[in-house]
Specification:
The structure is a single chain. This protein has 386 residues and is α/β, with parallel strands linked by helices. The chain is built from 13 helices and nine strands. The chain has an eight-stranded parallel β-barrel with strand order 1-2-3-4-5-6-8-9, surrounded by five helices. Helix 2 links the parallel strand 1 and strand 2. It binds ligand G3I.
């Protein structure tokens, strides 16, 4: 629990951090790291979550050099702060289904075993995506019937494998199927071009959920996408699709909408985020924040800034904004519809954003696995119990 007297105090932190930075720079140490974790007091994030809502994290696994399974530093943080795990990469199609007649489950099984033995659940990511596909799917030749069979056997093979694992509780069935831009400016983005749309047609959307549900009737099935909290035309398309699923005479088994929430310090506006959560909640489905991270050195248009280190001031802005977003989620999503909140990575150095820019600090722990103010922000948002 956060003790009131130890709540993150900005003046105290500023004082300590400036002092620490001065000492570090005099000593010739790396000043890219914020050196003031002392005021951050978060014994366990997931224990702050209201009503046992899952608090998750995406983790590297398998052959990754930074795999959770061979990293004691990462294991300490995951065990302490998170109740759910998402594989950052190793449960994607190219990993799990490398050849037409061959699935590869060893790495994912090891991660699921880790989760089970540490009391964590697993959110499966992801079954049907335009990206992350094995070459044999991209190059497959066949008519719509053959493609539908391919997709069904792909989904069934994966979901059925994990169906008996009680800890694998949910899946991103469709990932990012909506285009980024409203090309025809009608207020609703179209579907994204993909091998699935091109070869099967729009019927692949519902078929994917039906196949996943048949393979594991107990799993919660999500639609997962990015920028939907800040792009109304993209959210409109998601809600139209969900509306069609729900009004089908044989309703399509979808249980949730996952907002990835790869957000920036200045985008989306918090009012827009709240409105988007409220609109999604009106579907009655579960709503999850599935991939939260916050870039601080990239503006709303995607332009890189000039930061070379994470300043205390920016770290505090990041903290406050994460707290606002978590509060917005808890305010707008009724308790029974909360699918939980997951962050997309453990420490800054692991973040996918670092592959695009070395000067980003999007996560809750720094390059040395020390807690950042962002961690306190998430904790404070959760601790306002409701
Ligand atoms: O494993 C290979 C390694 O063998 C090779 O040496 C190295 C050289 O580039 O590449 C490694 O694979 C990379 C993999 O990450 C593991 O680091 C891939 O090239 C790279 O494309 C892959 O990026 C992942 C990306 O999805 C694409 O799958 C990111 O880690 C992952 O964070 C990112 O996650 C996505 C979600 O799945 C969907 N939502 C957006 C989110 C962020 O982009």
């Amino acid at each position: 629990m956060i003790k009131a007297k130890k709540q993150f105090a900005i003046p105290a932190l500023l004082f300590m951090a400036v002092g620490a930075l001065l000492v570090a720079s005099c000593a010739g140490l790396d000043t890219r790291t914020l050196l003031a974790p002392a005021e951050i007091d978060v014994p366990s994030l997931y224990q702050l979550a209201p009503h046992d809502m899952p608090i998750g994290v995406a983790v590297p696994a398998g052959k990754a050099r930074n795999s959770l399974l061979k990293s004691p530093e990462r294991q300490v943080l995951v065990n302490q702060h998170f109740s759910q795990i998402t594989a950052e990469n190793i449960m994607k199609p190219s990993y799990l289904h490398p050849a037409a007649n061959r699935f590869f489950f060893a790495d994912a099984d090891a991660l699921v075993d880790y989760a089970a033995s540490h009391g964590k659940t697993v959110h499966g990511h992801t079954l049907v995506w335009h990206y992350g596909l094995p070459a044999w799917i991209v190059e497959f030749k066949g008519d719509a019937v053959a493609w539908s069979g391919l997709m069904a056997s792909h989904i069934t093979g994966i979901v059925a494998h994990f169906a008996d694992e009680d800890v694998v509780v949910s899946w991103d069935v469709l990932n990012e199927v909506i285009a980024d831009v409203d090309e025809d400016r009608d207020g609703t983005n179209d579907l994204r071009r993909s091998v699935w749309l091109d070869n099967i047609g729009t019927g692949y959307l519902a078929a994917a959920y039906r196949a996943a549900h048949a393979a594991d009737p107990d799993a919660e099935l999500y639609y997962n996408d990015y920028h939907i909290a800040g792009t109304p035309a993209k959210l409109n398309a998601v809600l139209d699709m969900v509306g069609e699923f729900q009004s089908d005479p044989d309703p399509v088994p979808i249980h949730g909408i996952a907002f990835q929430m790869h957000v920036r310090l200045d985008w989306p506006d918090i009012k827009q985020i709240k409105a988007s959560f409220a609109r999604a909640a009106a579907t009655g489905l579960k709503i999850k924040i599935s991939e939260l991270d916050m870039s601080v050195n990239t503006d709303r248009r995607g332009r890189r800034g000039s930061m070379k280190a994470l300043s205390v001031a920016v770290a505090v802005q990041q903290q406050k904004r994460i707290e606002q977003i978590i509060s917005a989620y808890l305010d707008e999503i009724p308790e029974a519809q909360r699918g939980g909140i997951s962050v997309w990575g453990i420490a800054d150095a692991d973040s996918w954003q670092r592959t695009e820019s070395p000067d980003e600090w999007p996560l809750l722990f720094d390059d040395e696995f020390k807690p950042k103010p962002a961690l306190q922000g998430l904790a404070n948002g959760l601790a306002r119990r409701r």
